[in-house]
Write a structure and sequence with these properties.
It comes from Kribbella turkmenica. The protein has helices at residues 17-36, 39-46, 50-56, 60-67, 74-82, 89-102, 104-119, 121-142, 148-169, 179-195. It is an all-alpha fold. The protein has two domains: 17-67, Orthogonal Bundle (Arc Repressor Mutant, subunit A), CATH 1.10.10.60; 74-195, Tetracycline Repressor, domain 2 (Orthogonal Bundle), CATH 1.10.357.
């Protein structure tokens, strides 16, 4: 009976290969940030062939979304925000962003992400780069203004503040105000940042 010699090179996919890829991705995003992370580098860290990473994940964006346990795909968020007339952009942004927080699963994940962002410089950098590239940049490009990036960033700060007050600090009456009223109050302020 002949025994096969072990083949050199990367190991093939195993029972938790996907988990190993996600672990390596989280570490790489934390150490290097979104921009400097590559799928090949993640494959190297996970000890698998790069083709296996592509087998499980279509792109670096998808791997980022899953490794960070985001409750929604930021690319879909950007598409929903940009789908409509410019004069309703503030309302769409408020509706989409707060809609993510209003679902029980979304709220749980977003709370975890926000708490991680404020307690870890690495997580803050990852989120800033990843979400910036997938949401803030495309929305900025859709505005016809020389300072579009600043405008969208100011709208984001407004939303982050409201989310912190409503869902984490539970500041009253913001925490108990019904969602429609909250969106009605936020939409014009966001619109002013974006197109005013």
């Amino acid at each position: 009976m002949t025994t096969r010699a072990a083949r050199p090179g990367r190991r093939p996919g195993g029972p938790d290969t996907r988990g190993e890829i996600l672990r390596a991705a989280r570490e790489s995003f934390a150490d290097k940030g979104f921009s400097a992370t590559s799928l090949r580098g993640i494959a190297r860290e996970a000890g698998v062939d790069a083709a296996l990473v592509h087998h499980y994940f279509d792109s670096k964006d998808e791997l980022f979304i899953e490794s960070m346990a985001l409750p929604v795909d930021p690319r879909q968020i950007a598409a929903r925000i940009m789908d409509g007339p410019p004069e309703e952009l503030g309302r769409r942004i408020a509706t989409v962003f707060l809609g993510v927080w209003e679902s029980p699963d979304g709220q749980q994940r977003m709370k975890a992400i926000f708490r991680s962002v404020v307690s870890s410089d690495a997580v803050a950098r990852i989120m800033r780069e990843g979400v910036g590239q997938m949401i803030i940049q495309p929305v900025s490009r859709s505005l016809d203004a020389p300072d579009a990036h600043l405008r969208v960033s100011l709208a984001a700060t407004q939303l982050i503040g409201v989310a912190m007050a409503r869902y984490l600090v539970e500041l009253e009456p913001v925490a108990s105000t019904d969602l429609t009223t909250l969106i009605d109050r936020l939409a014009p302020v966001l619109q002013l940042h974006l197109t005013g």
